[in-house]
UniProtKB/TrEMBL annotation:
Keyword DNA-binding: no
Transmembrane segments: 12-33, 75-96, 108-125, 131-154, 166-185, 191-215, 311-332, 365-385, 423-447, 453-474, 486-508, 514-536
Source organism of this protein record: Camelus ferus (Wild bactrian camel)
MF-aspect GO terms: L-amino acid transmembrane transporter activity; neutral L-amino acid transmembrane transporter activity
Entry protein name: Large neutral amino acids transporter small subunit 3 isoform X1
Coiled coil: none
Alphabetical keyword list: Cell membrane, Glycoprotein, Membrane, Transmembrane, Transmembrane helix
Swiss-Prot/TrEMBL catalytic activity: L-phenylalanine(in) = L-phenylalanine(out); L-isoleucine(in) = L-isoleucine(out); L-leucine(in) = L-leucine(out); L-methionine(in) = L-methionine(out)
Domain of life where this protein originates: Eukaryota
UniProt family annotation: Belongs to the SLC43A transporter (TC 2.A.1.44) family.
Length: 563
């Protein structure tokens, strides 16, 4: 039996902590591809494509010595391309289903698919000469199960109010840091534990996610703080006034009383006897509603309007470009590092091959360990997205009600304006880091690649968190899943280009990554178009915000001020 939304609110800290751990070890683990690729080659997946004349290296386990070649890497990289495509592309149907049915069924399906993925990889490793094609299905289920777990956790931060963007960034941070999982598994693998035992154990742990979701996650979606006040619904549910007013109505009643007292200030100063009546309160509430800008409910905003908005269209370009840049580096990192060691020599010596292999394995460990930076950097971008949100108001009447006794001060900050300002800062910072990452990729220095690892990790955590925070700030919560899903689908289509780029690099360019990286660096400059449009949109919105909303309010014991 699924818990109610009220019960889920009481368990929100347990759900958030377990969601972070589950995302860290079971979501986008496929992004640690460089370590998984080494293990698959050692297990002999598609080693049958290699012959003695076209081998680039040999790998061995306790029983076999497997050949390795470019054809094998291209085939395995195709599996990674398919898996990473599923990891991003399936978010559109998942978003539509999650908007309709909530995150619970999505999370249950995701944990089951991930367990099946690990089981298939374990079974395929028993006879790789025959069962190697199973790796495509396994990687696809791995990507699908991972994105189900990630996607279903993105609406959980709605239960944390003004800290929503910070908790969403933490979810994205654990998602981005999950690339460390395969490097950790490779350490266990190198210690002598068999690949099959590791995968079966991992499959069993995925079943615990299924059990946790069945016991703690509610059957309904998590509304956003703008659509429901969890504290009012839960803490004030037993409170009644005149046996009619509860919850949100009680909050509105108190606000109306405060406004009524402000309007009666002159009468009170003159000593006129007054009393509060229900008719006065209702009349004040009606007048306040007439003065305030019209509120548009989430249900009344058509999805078509959100899909065709310029902000969403510009975000598609920015996220697609960034996704291609990030995914290509993950797929080609081993080959890039090999080229830095061998310098593309046609006749490589055995010692040089051995040195290249050792360098790639060491760097894959370092790259995997650096993925934990996402847990530190993603909350940072979430803090940027939440900057001064708590001090903002939606309307001038809300500002006067919050202050109680207003004094002459600067005009209040409006919440929507501040959210746009924070999004501009977040995307501008992310794009500068992405350009810096592209520049370090062009420099032919092995030691500088450690800085490249850091920038890659930070950017990968930043751009997902910034986009999720932007959608949560601008669009209704019942559109969040569909918009995020469509954005991920378009990004996945962009990321498919990494396969032909990889084939061009290992083919005509003979392993030299300079020209591909240069083209991607120039392409990444398009990412600045989104913050530029947000800056223009904010300026236009500021002009519309202030003029019709300036309302003179006279408060007890204070001169007339304009808010």
């Amino acid at each position: 039996m699924a818990p109610t939304l009220q019960e889920a609110y009481q368990r929100r800290w347990w759900m958030a902590c377990t969601a972070v751990l589950e995302n860290l070890f079971f979501s986008a683990v496929l992004l640690g591809w460089s370590s998984l690729l080494i293990m698959l080659k050692k297990e002999g997946f598609y080693s049958s494509l290699c012959s003695a004349g076209n081998t680039t290296n040999t790998t061995q386990d306790e029983q076999h010595q497997w050949l390795s070649c470019n054809q094998q890497e291209e085939m395995l990289n195709l599996g990674f391309t398919i898996g990473s495509f599923v990891l991003s592309a399936t978010t559109l149907p998942l978003g539509i289903l999650m908007d309709r049915f909530g995150p619970r069924p999505t999370r249950l399906i995701g944990s089951a698919c991930f367990a099946a993925s690990c089981t298939l990889m374990a079974l395929a490793s028993r006879d790789t000469e025959v069962l190697s094609p199973l790796i495509f299905l396994a990687l696809s289920l791995n990507g699908f199960g991972g994105i189900c777990l990630t996607f279903s956790s993105l609406t959980l931060p709605n239960m944390f109010g003004n800290l929503r963007s910070t908790f969403m960034a933490l979810m994205f941070g654990s998602y981005a840091s999950s690339a460390i999982t395969y490097p950790v598994i490779k350490l266990i693998y190198d210690a002598g534990v068999s690949f099959m035992v590791i995968m079966f154990t991992w499959s069993g742990l995925a079943c615990l996610i299924f059990l946790n979701c069945a016991l703690n996650w509610p059957g309904e979606a998590f509304p956003s703080p703008e659509e429901v006040n969890y504290k009012e619904k839960i803490k004030l549910k037993e409170l009644a006034l005149d046996h009619k007013v509860t919850g949100d109505r009680f909050y509105t009643y108190l606000t109306a009383v405060g406004q009524w007292l402000s309007q009666k200030a002159s009468s009170l100063e003159e000593g006129v006897d007054t009393f509060i009546s229900s008719q006065d309160v209702r009349g004040t509430s009606v007048k306040s509603a007439e003065r305030a800008p019209p509120a548009v409910s989430a249900e009344s905003v058509p999805l078509r309007k959100s899909l065709c908005s310029p902000i969403f269209l510009w975000s598609l370009l920015t996220m697609g470009m960034t996704q291609l840049r990030i995914i290509f580096y993950m797929a080609a990192m081993n080959k890039m590092l090999e080229y830095l060691v061998t310098r593309g020599q046609e006749h490589e010596t055995d010692s040089l091959k051995q040195r290249a292999t050792e360098t790639v394995e060491f760097c894959s460990y370092v790259f995997g360990a650096m993925q934990l930076l996402c847990l530190l950097t993603c909350p940072l971008i979430g803090y940027v997205m939440d900057w001064r949100i708590k001090d903002c108001v939606d309307t001038p009447t809300e500002a006067s009600a919050r202050d109680g006794a207003a004094t002459k001060s600067a005009k209040p900050r409006y919440r929507k304006i501040q959210k746009l300002t924070n999004a501009i800062n977040a995307f501008t910072l992310t794009n500068f880091l992405l350009v810096g990452f592209g520049i370090t990729c062009l420099i032919d220095s092995l030691h500088l690649q450690f800085l490249t690892f850091v920038l890659h990790t930070v950017v990968r955590g930043f751009y997902h968190s910034a986009c999720g925070g932007l959608y949560a700030a601008v669009y209704p919560s019942n559109h969040f899943g569909t918009l995020t899903g469509l954005q991920s689908l378009i990004s996945a289509v962009f990321a498919l280009l990494q396969q032909p780029l990889f084939m061009v690099m290992v083919g005509p360019l003979e392993g030299e990554p300079f020209w591909v990286n240069l083209g991607l660096l120039l392409f990444s400059l398009l990412g600045f178009l989104l913050p530029c449009y947000l800056f223009y949109y904010r300026a236009r919105l500021q002009r519309e915000y202030v003029t019709p909303w300036e309302v003179p309010l006279k408060v007890l014991g204070s001169p007339e001020v304009t808010v």
